[in-house]
Structures are given as C-alpha cells and as structure tokens.
C-alpha cells in the first residue's frame, strides 16, 4: 500500500514511552503493520529513563506537548482564540463543565484545554483523521476538547481500575457520549462501562484485548526450573499487593516451606516493601530488581516456576498474558478481567484478593504439585493466551473500529480482519 493511501491517525498518551506501557507500543506497531500511518503525541516522557531499545526508538518518534513548557501552551491558546474563537469558547465551556464535581479543580481542566490547543495544529498538519487515547482520565479529556477545537474524531481505551474508581468525577459518561467508540480490554471492563454510561451509548463499547507480539514468546520452551522460585512483575504500588505477598512468604518460611520470591519492578512503595522484607528477615529469599527491560522480564519469568500477582485492583494485566505465553502457571486474584483469562486448575490458581492465608495456601499447594502437572498447566496456559491475545488479531479489531469511524478512509477494509467483539 502506498503511503498516500494510508489512513493517518494519531495516538495520545499521558506518558510515552513507559515501562508499563509496552502494550501501547505493541498496538501502535501492529496498526502500522496493517497499513496505518500513526502520529505519536504524549504529554511527557522525552526525558524519562527507558531500558528497552524499542522504547528509545519510540521516544524519537513522539511529539511532546509539554516539552516547550508554559510559553508553548500560552501561544497555542492565543493562536486558537484568534483563529477559531467559536471553537475555543465551545471547548472552554466544556472545560468548565468538566470541572464541576470533578476530582481535580478548574485550573487542571484549563491546562487540559491548553494542551488540546497545542495538539490540534499538529494533528491537522499531519492529516490525522482520528485520534485514539489510552486511559479514560485526563488524556481522554484532552482529545475530547481537541475535537471541539476542530480536531479529528476520537476514541479511547479504558483499562481500569482508576476509571471505575471515580467515573462521575472524570465525566466518563460525557467522554463516551462524544466518542466515536470506546474500547474495553475485557468483558468485565465493558460491564463496568455499561454501569456508568447511557444505554443509548452501549453500542459504542467494544472489547479489544491487549495483545502479545510473537517475538516475546517465540523462544524455545524452557523446562520449569527445580528451584522453588516465583516472580511477581509489576509496579511496586498499593494495588499490586506486594506487601501481602511478602507477608505470605513469611508465613510459609515460618512453617519450613522453601520458597524464593523475585519482585521484578520498581515504584513508589519500594522503600516500604524493603522495610517489610527487613523486618520479617526475608533478605535471603526475597529480592527486588528495579526497572527492567522486556527481555529481562521474560528471563525472570522463565527462571521461575510461576508468576504470582496478588493484586487488589486490576484491568487485565499484560504480565499474566506474558507468563502464560511463556508456559508458566499463574497465581493471582479473582478481580476484574483476570478470571476471563486464568482458569483455575488449568493454567494456574485464583484466590480471593486481600486474603494472606488464601495466598499462602495457594503457594503451598502450587509448590507441592509435581513438575509434570506444572508443565501441562503451562502448556494449557500457552494455548489459551495465544488464542485470545494475539496483538495482530486484536489490532485488526481496533483497525476495523477506526475505519468505521472514518467513512472517507483511503484504506481497503479487506486489509484487516472484520471480526470485532
């Protein structure tokens, strides 16, 4: 397909690239393989530390709204006010509306308006026919305001749990009402959107899963190691439940159960977790890696018997998909979309969130399972996740939704799969 026949779209994210946003990178690259021309726009991330070479390349391809600071935003506002006064005041009214009974005060929403003023000329110059945002919080408010300023139609992906913690305060209903379509990453996520939006807008909500690239899991099947090692991958924060996990490890150790834990990641709770490890005298069996690359994540999963993720709140964690794709069982909680992917007894264990005793019991049971059974569970998990979470298949679903939102698309619809959930 020639470049002139490609559909030009924009992607907007709060921070990009980012260690925990590799699924967005995969989605963008998959859409480009399908023939789209994708403009990357982010608020921040130009000076962030990244460990993946792929993220470094993406950073070079991304335009940053806040890189020029306040002067750049003020100039963008003045230019929009002069060139499109009617659009500007319409968007200003929406910003005031969004600030009523919101989780953030009016100045934040005026900043979102300024960011939208900065973006619109970029998208128009690029020729973007549509813009897709990830996360239904401020990033979606920015593209909603951009639409009122004369920008392209928009859509957004809702991940949870943040959007479902405060749907009324982030004006989720209004964002869906103005959107061309909305993506939920699981059936559970779709159900939560149904709770908070108008029935007339239910048809806009489509399920498109986060996907995996074959390069991540196209490695020789590695035998499950003998060492009683588990790995927990994710940001060190309240919702991931690492403190609960460390306490469960302590319970097992006190009973004489041999187990090792690798906490792969970093985050705001690292100091608190390190203090807990020290207080429980677990330094010999619990370690923290800090931020690591995708290849290092893969190595840690392959060097463990299983992934354990004791989250209190989630969307549908990509790391669970990665572990299953690498033929490792998963021990995780009955929250959000996780039970749609992890089948107890087939690909892993599920336990109630927040229950230390249940977590310890699941770990104890897992450690007692013969290797042959763990290998069978890993293979079952591998088959299931590849069936439901191929990035090219899921990007094809998203592509169909975008094409439907842009009737004058120069692309041939037959170039992407027609199945949309």
Summarize the amount of helix as a percent range.
40-55%
Topology as H/E string?
Answer: EHEHEHHHEHEHHEHEHEHEHEHEHEEHHH
Task: Going across the biggest sheet, name each strand in turn.
Answer: 3-2-1-4-5-6-7
The total number of structural domains is 2
CATH superfamily of the largest domain: Glycogen Phosphorylase B
**CA-based shape:** elongated
Structural class call reads alpha/beta
Low-confidence stretches: none
Radius of gyration: 22 Å
Strand content range? 5-15%
CATH topology type of the largest domain = Rossmann fold
Question: Total helix count?
Answer: 17
The CATH architecture designation of the largest domain is 3-Layer(aba) Sandwich
> Mean of the pLDDT scores?
93
Instruction: Specify the CATH class of the largest domain.
Output: Alpha Beta
Assembly type of the chains comes to: single chain
Give the topology:
Blueprint: E1 8-15, H1 22-33, E2 37-44, H2 53-60, E3 62-64, H3 69-83, H4 85-99, H5 106-126, E4 130-134, H6 138-148, E5 153-158, H7 162-165, H8 172-178, E6 181-184, H9 187-196, E7 205-207, H10 214-217, E8 229-233, H11 242-254, E9 260-264, H12 270-279, E10 286-288, H13 294-302, E11 306-309, H14 318-325, E12 330-333, E13 348-351, H15 356-368, H16 371-388, H17 391-405
Parallel strand pairs: 1-2, 1-4, 2-3, 4-5, 5-6, 6-7, 8-9, 8-11, 9-10, 11-12, 12-13
Helix pairs in contact: 1-17, 3-4, 3-5, 4-5, 4-6, 5-6, 11-12, 11-15, 14-16
């Amino acid at each position: 397909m020639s470049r002139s026949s490609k559909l030009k779209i924009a992607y907007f994210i709060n921070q990009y690239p980012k260690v925990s946003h590799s699924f967005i990178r995969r989605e963008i690259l998959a859409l480009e393989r399908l023939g789209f021309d994708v403009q990357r726009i982010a608020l921040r991330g130009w000076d962030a530390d990244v460990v993946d070479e792929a993220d470094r390349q993406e950073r070079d391809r991304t335009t940053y709204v806040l890189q020029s600071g306040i002067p750049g935003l003020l100039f963008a506002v003045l230019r929009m006010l002069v060139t499109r006064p009617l659009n500007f005041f319409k968007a200003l009214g929406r910003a005031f509306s969004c600030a009523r009974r919101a989780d953030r005060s009016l100045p934040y929403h005026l900043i979102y308006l300024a960011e939208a003023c900065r973006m619109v000329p970029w998208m128009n110059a690029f020729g973007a026919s549509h813009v897709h945002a990830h996360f239904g919080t401020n990033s979606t408010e920015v593209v909603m305001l951009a639409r009122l300023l004369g920008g392209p139609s928009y859509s957004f992906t809702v991940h949870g749990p943040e959007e479902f913690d405060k749907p009324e305060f982030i004006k989720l209903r209004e964002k869906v009402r103005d959107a061309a379509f909305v993506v939920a990453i699981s059936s559970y996520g779709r159900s939560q959107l149904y709770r908070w939006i108008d029935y007339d807008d239910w048809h806009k909500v489509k399920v498109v899963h986060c996907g995996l690239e074959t390069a991540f899991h196209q490695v020789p099947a590695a035998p499950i190691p003998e060492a009683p090692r588990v790995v927990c991958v994710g940001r060190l924060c309240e919702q991931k439940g690492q403190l609960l996990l460390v306490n469960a490890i302590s319970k097992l150790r006190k009973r004489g159960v041999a187990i090792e834990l690798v906490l792969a990641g970093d985050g705001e709770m690292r100091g608190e977790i390190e203090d807990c490890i020290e207080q429980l005298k677990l330094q010999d069996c619990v370690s923290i890696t800090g931020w690591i690359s995708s290849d290092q994540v893969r190595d840690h999963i392959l060097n463990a018997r299983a992934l354990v993720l004791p989250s209190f709140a989630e969307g549908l964690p990509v790391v669970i998909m990665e572990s299953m794709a690498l033929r490792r069982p998963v021990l995780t909680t009955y929250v959000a979309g996780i039970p749609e992917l992890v089948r107890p007894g087939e690909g892993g264990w599920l336990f109630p969130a927040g229950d230390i005793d249940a977590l310890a019991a699941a770990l104890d049971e897992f450690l007692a399972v013969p290797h042959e059974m763990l290998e069978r569970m890993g293979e079952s998990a591998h088959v299931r996740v590849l069936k439901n979470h191929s990035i090219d298949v899921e990007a094809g679903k998203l592509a169909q939704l975008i094409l439907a939102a842009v009737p004058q698309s120069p692309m041939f619809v037959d170039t992407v799969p027609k199945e949309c959930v």
